[in-house]
Specification:
There is one protein chain. By secondary structure, the protein is of the alpha+beta class. The protein is 35% helix and 20% strand. The strands form 4 sheets. The protein has a 4-stranded antiparallel beta sheet. A hairpin with a 2-residue loop joins strand 4 and strand 5. The longest helix is centred in the C-terminal third of the chain and has 38 residues. It starts with a strand and ends with a helix.
Length: 186
């Protein structure tokens, strides 16, 4: 069944970090960045810590497990949040919170990475130099949403395929090592 994202999730815009940074003492918090959002998940090497004004902490947009962050700037990569510790969401990212009675967050994240949705996002992007999407663009995206049981089965198949791909990549690395040995040692 076709559903707009507005029917199955809420989307929050990240915040402009400068408005929340403390000039003196404050509360340190880890912050997402554009580079930290990768298809495979959040890359913690690109998280940064900022000190926020304690009086403004309640107004921050932070992550919770099973939410999705998506870049508002091309490429429109998304990641599923699994970390229990809240991460501050900057203005270049959107935070998606799914209605778990109709869609698994993992399933929606996979759909957001798919060619069909990526093409829809490209079709509604704005800007010549820096292409971006708006929150309303996201809300209007239509997806084919199977039943929860079908989603679960698809997620199981995806998981098996990812395991298979990981094993094949490992095999390729081993074979490349053998090839390098043959070449260097005759």
């Amino acid at each position: 069944m076709k559903r707009e994202l507005s029917d199955i999730c809420s989307i929050s815009s990240g915040v402009i970090l400068r408005r929340f940074e403390a000039e003196g003492n404050g509360t340190p918090i880890k912050c997402l960045s554009l580079k930290s959002v990768e298809q495979e998940g959040i890359n913690s090497d690109y998280l940064r810590e900022i000190v926020v004004d304690t009086s403004k902490v309640d107004n921050l947009v932070t992550t919770k497990p099973n939410q999705i962050v998506i870049k508002s700037i091309q490429p429109f990569l998304s990641s599923l949040i699994i970390d229990e510790n809240p991460l501050l969401v900057p203005s270049q990212l959107y935070l998606i919170d799914c209605d778990k009675t109709v869609v698994f967050p993992e399933f929606l994240q996979i759909l957001l990475q798919g060619k069909e949705i990526q093409q829809k996002l490209l079709n509604c992007k704005r800007g010549n130099y820096i292409s971006r999407i708006t929150k309303n663009d996201l809300y209007k995206i239509e997806i084919d949403l199977p039943s929860l049981e079908s989603q679960r089965k698809i997620l199981e198949l995806v998981s098996l395929q990812k395991e298979k791909i990981a094993k094949l990549k490992l095999l390729i690395k081993k074979e490349e090592s053998v090839l390098d040995y043959i070449i260097t040692n005759g």
